[in-house]
Write a structure and sequence with these properties.
Elements (H helix, E strand, L loop, with lengths): L15 H14 L7 E5 L14 E4 L5 H11 L4 E7 H7 L1 H10 L3 E7 L2 E2 L5 E2 L23 H7 L4 E6 L3 H13 L4 E6 L11
Helix pairs in contact: 1-6, 3-4
């Protein structure tokens, strides 16, 4: 058995712990064996998620999670492909790939760990940082309106786009299960705690 708990690289209280546990439980309850699933992650705090879930995995380039996941699915459509990334990874650097993944509608589940900042690089504003939030790149408060990932996904053609919170574990797990079972591209925006850098109201 893998002793990943001793090597975890997230801050105590990070919502990432709950999200990966929800993914693992969803796989278990759907009876998807480890050799039939692939977890693809990008760069950021969420990037290590692929290492903490049994099965095939790839930690890819920043913002390039979805192109890699697309390649995996096209090569072997029988695999359950789950892509994970952060709000900076997916809605900033990887925004173009996100929009086109929604349009292509391949059977991939995309779970975004949304802590509303670039936490791995110590708390810069991201595309989902709320107005007024004080960050390293906005010391007097963020002035840019955050985007709405679910509305954006739906507008781009995604037929399964939902929001959840890492603390609502049971609901999150059920949404992940429904997303995996959905035939086509599915997107889940998971709001989560970031005790180190997200210090505004949640």
């Amino acid at each position: 058995m893998r002793s990943w708990l001793t090597n975890i690289q997230w801050c105590p209280g990070c919502g990432d712990f709950l999200i990966i546990m929800a993914i693992k439980n969803a796989f278990k309850e759907l009876w998807i064996p480890s050799h039939k699933r692939v977890v693809v992650s990008g760069v950021g705090c969420s990037g290590k998620a692929s290492q903490y879930i049994d099965g095939y995995a790839a930690e890819t380039l920043h913002g390039r999670t979805l192109p890699f996941a697309t390649g995996v699915k096209m090569v072997d459509p029988s695999l359950t492909v789950v892509a994970v990334g952060g709000d900076g990874d997916g809605y900033g650097i990887g925004m173009g790939h996100f929009i086109h993944a929604c349009r292509r509608d391949l059977d991939i589940t995309y779970i975004v760990f949304n802590n509303e900042n670039y936490a791995l690089t110590t708390g810069q504003s991201s595309p989902t940082t709320p107005i007024g939030a004080v960050t390293k790149t906005a010391p007097e408060g963020n002035l840019i309106k955050p985007l709405d990932p679910v509305a954006l996904a739906e507008h781009a053609g995604c037929s399964f786009s939902k929001t959840a919170h890492s603390k609502n574990f049971q609901e999150l797990k059920e949404i992940i299960k429904a997303a995996i079972q959905h035939k086509g591209f599915s997107h889940i925006d998971v709001e989560q705690d970031c005790p180190s850098f997200r210090r505004w109201a949640m």
